[in-house]
Each structure stands twice: as C-alpha cells, then as structure tokens.
Design brief:
Layout: H1 18-40, H2 46-52, H3 54-67, H4 78-83, H5 87-100, E1 114-116, H6 118-126, E2 137-142, H7 157-170, E3 179-181, E4 186-188, E5 206-211, H8 223-243, E6 251-252, H9 270-285
Parallel strand pairs: 2-5, 2-6, 3-5
Antiparallel strand pairs: 1-4, 3-4
Length: about 300
C-alpha cells in the first residue's frame, strides 16, 4: 500500500525529506507564477490543472529520483522504506501538497472494455469521430506479465476489468493503453479518441497497443505469438488507415528515451513488423487509386 495523500493540517512529509521538499516547492512556486490566473479560476477543471503541472512535476521527480530517500534506519518508517524504489509516486504526492495544499484526485478517463476480431475492429475504428485529441503515431508494447502461458485463452472481460482497477486504483493513472491484443481478439481499453498512458514521452502524441506475451521468451513468429502478431499488425494497419499515419512512424516502447524497458522484446523486429503492416494496407486498400481502364 502506498503513502496516502494528506490533508493540509497533516504533519507530512518527515523532516528528513527537506531537500526534496525545497525542490518541489520551488517548482510549485514557478508554476503558480506562470499560470496563476488560469489555475486559480474557479471554473478551471482539476484535469486541466493536472495537465498544467506535469512538466515541472517531471523535473521535480527527476531530482527526487537522484535523492532516492536516503532513509535513516528507523523501524517506524516501514512504508517509506518500501516506497524508496517508487520515487515518482511519492514525488507526486509531495508535489501535489506543495502546489495545492490539499488532496488531489486523478480523473479516470474510463474504458471501452469491448473485444473485436480484426475485421470487426476495422469497422469499429472507421466509425469513430475525432473531434479533439488526434495521435501522430502508434507505439507497440508487450505485456511481459502476463505471458502467453499465463493467459492460455487470451484476455477475458474480467482480466480487462482487473487491469482497469490496477491502472486506476493502484497506479493512480488517468488512463491506460488503448488496446490489449491477444491471439484471439483486440480489446479496446482507453478510448482511441482520447490520450492514454503507456509510455512517458509518448502519452500525449501516440496510441499505445499492448500485445499479450513476453517476447524476450515467447515466440513471436509461430504458434500463439504469431496469431498475436497478426492481430497487432491488423490493428496498426487499421489505425494507420483511419488516421492517415505513415507506418514508418510507428515506434516500439524501448525507443522512448525515458524508459528502461526492453519492450516489446527481442523477438519483435520493428522493421519486419512495419513491412507486414504495409503489406496488409496494400492488400486492403491498394486498388483504390488505380486509374480506370480506358474504353
């Protein structure tokens, strides 16, 4: 269990955290100076405020990651000791108190929670209306955990609901990835017309697709892994067609400079994956612009 956010009167954080508190408060003061009119307006939503302080929050978190809570050997701090590997979470809680002086609740964006075959997903995606956020590219991930063996029948509705609880209630994120793809179906998680949370550098600019499996160990080019691959290729091809995206702009998670994950695994070869996306696009849409035969 993480450290709870405290109310204004709480004696939080402990005195030995003061080096980070100075950083957090300085960042908060800077942000208040830059955006005070908007942030103090009574009708500005909490969601907008959360978006506004992400950048200084990130800078403060980086400093805090270096500080790493050099805890004294005190038996009355077991929760803090467990949390020392999770600086971003603690930083968020401290920073929100330094900035707002009150409890901050993250607004969850909700999920679709519906499974489609590749053909059904193509029809579903082409019927969407894009009135606000519009992604510029797609990021492909693998779940790593669970592996293919841990989900012998792919994802179920209950698995998807469990994932919602994990991202919303444990991670305290505003959203999750857009798709979870297994060897049977394509699950729509975060609405495709809204930004998700899947890769720190790319959340605001890209769709995030999670493929079931650990492709450092699971085979990607045969058996169930190949069926996952085909559904993932179909999903990327569909969204490339819907949004007019160049398949060459697709990224894999490990390309994010702010991540250390080797995702989506060594058996996923990006250029080969993109070639299969292009082949499917040509198969689906390649004849649409042919010149009519002269009579």
């Amino acid at each position: 269990m993480g450290i709870p956010l405290r109310e204004r009167t709480a004696r939080w954080p402990p005195a030995h955290c003061s080096p980070f508190i100075a950083i957090a408060r300085a960042a908060a003061r800077q942000l208040r100076h830059q955006t005070s009119a908007a942030l103090n307006h009574p009708h500005i939503s909490l969601c907008c405020r959360n978006e506004a302080w992400q950048q200084p929050m990130f800078l403060a978190t980086r400093h805090f990651s270096l500080y790493q809570f050099k805890l004294p050997d005190r038996p009355d701090l077991p929760v803090l000791r467990r949390e020392r590997a999770r600086p971003a979470r603690i930083a968020t809680e401290i920073f929100s108190n330094a900035f707002f002086g009150e409890k901050v609740m993250v607004e969850w964006k909700g999920i679709v929670g519906t499974a489609y075959t590749a053909d059904e997903f193509d029809s579903y995606a082409h019927a969407l209306r894009w009135s606000g956020w519009r992604p510029a590219f797609i990021v492909v991930h693998n779940t790593a955990v669970p592996t293919l063996a841990q989900r012998p029948n792919g994802f179920t509705k209950q698995h998807i609901l469990n994932l919602e609880g994990f991202y919303r209630d444990q991670q305290h994120w505003k959203a999750g990835p857009h798709l979870f793809i297994d060897d049977r179906q394509i699950w729509v998680f975060t609405p495709l017309t809204m930004s998700g949370v899947h890769s720190p550098s790319y959340n605001k600019t890209a769709l995030g697709f999670e493929m079931l499996g650990d492709y450092d160990r699971d085979e990607f080019n045969s058996g169930r892994g190949l069926r996952v691959q085909r559904n993932a290729v179909a999903a990327v091809a569909t969204m490339s067609a819907v949004l007019g995206l160049d398949p060459d702009t697709m990224k894999v998670h490990k390309e994010d400079p702010l991540t250390t994950h080797a995702c989506p695994g060594r058996t996923v070869v990006k250029n080969k994956f993109i070639e299969k996306v292009k082949e499917l696009l040509a198969e689906r849409h390649g004849g649409e612009h042919l010149d009519p035969v002269s009579s």
